[in-house]
Design a protein that fits this description.
Largest sheet: 5 strands, mixed, barrel
Distance between the termini: 32 Å
Number of domains: 2
Number of strands: 13
Radius of gyration: 18 Å
Length: 160
């Protein structure tokens, strides 16, 4: 079969920006806050779609689920939990996975961590990856003790 240029095809130059309206009761945190990470509940734990909250109106929020969008977020460097409490911590390096962590053990307002499992030993959904914020940003961040670092996170979003 020879290769041919198709006469009819569809191309989009707009990009794949995904801002969706979500009912707050369907989110992991039912009291959403603008600029905070969000995860929509799912039947299968660890598979929740994640994004960043853009606006909150009444009982609905607009969430940016755009894949590869970068937002500045607070990330906890917890790696593991034991008996419902943080047990180990580590450095965060460029490219490391960042998870939406529903554990109630983290500081107020912090929703992201480096732990693939929450305090109840349940899978956390992958939120995105640690990235450089600007040319002067550096890694590693955090350390062997508990810490929360504000850093750039490239979200996985929808369609990833």
């Amino acid at each position: 079969m020879t290769e041919a240029i198709r006469q009819d095809y569809e191309v989009s130059s707009v990009g794949a920006v995904r801002h969706w309206l979500v009912t707050d009761s369907r989110m992991e945190d039912i009291t959403p806050t603008v600029t905070q990470p969000a995860a929509v509940t799912s039947l299968l734990l660890g598979t929740q779609i994640c994004g960043t909250i853009l606006s909150v109106t009444g009982t609905q929020s607009i969430v940016d689920f755009t894949s590869s969008m970068v937002y500045y977020q607070e990330v906890r460097n917890v790696l593991t939990y034991a008996v419902g409490a943080e047990a180990t911590w580590g450095v965060i390096n460029e490219g490391d996975p960042i998870y939406y962590d529903g554990s109630g053990t983290m500081p107020a307002g912090v929703k992201l961590s480096t732990s693939p499992l929450d305090a109840a030993d349940v899978a956390n959904p992958l939120f995105g990856f640690a990235v450089l914020h600007n040319p002067t940003d550096t890694f590693p961040k955090g350390g062997a003790a508990a810490s929360t670092t504000e850093m750039a996170v490239m979200q996985r979003g929808a369609g990833a």
